[in-house]
Amino acid sequence: MTEDRKETALKQVKTVFTGDENLPTHYVNSVNIRSGQEEFFLTFGTAIPLDITDIKDLENIDSINAQALFRCAMTKSMMKQVIDLMTNLYENQTRQVELLQASQEYVRIE
């Protein structure tokens, strides 16, 4: 009985999202992350770039407003998983882009 519990505790169950066909996709260029005692709060939004015609106008700007699109909360363990996954994806994408650029340079040389 104890061995059965140990085996079950080590088993990872994959989450499969369903019903996300109509889920809207938002462009996000602004993120705010706050931490609580046991969780993280992530707010995603879009900031519209200001129309600056003169570099001196920047001196009077202290902030840019971002339209909040959605907020979520996640546990510390989920945040760790998200960070690990995003790091892995980012590194893989970077390697792929570098390989693509290198192959394009190789083709130009020939």
Secondary structure elements and pairings:
Layout: H1 2-10, E1 30-35, E2 39-47, E3 66-75, H2 76-109
Antiparallel strand pairs: 1-2, 2-3
Please tell me about this protein's structure:
This protein is α+β, with helices and mostly antiparallel strands and 110 residues long. It has one domain (2-109). The protein has helices spanning 2-10, 76-109; strands spanning 30-35, 39-47, 66-75. A hairpin with a 3-residue loop joins strand 1 (30-35) and strand 2. 0% of the residues are buried.
Computed CA radius of gyration, to the nearest angstrom: 22 Å
Quote the distance from N terminus to C terminus.
Answer: 67 Å
Q: Please state how the strands of the largest beta sheet are arranged side by side.
A: 1-2-3
Q: Could you state the order of secondary-structure elements as H and E? A: HEEEH
Number of domains: 1
- Low confidence ranges: none
What form results from the Cα inertia axes? extended
Task: Write down the overall mean pLDDT.
Answer: 89
**Coarse structural class:** alpha+beta
Number of H- or I-type helical stretches: 2
Tell me the fraction of residues in β-strands, as a range.
Answer: 15-25%
Give the biggest sheet. Answer: 3 strands, antiparallel
The percentage helix is: 25-40%
Number of strands: 3
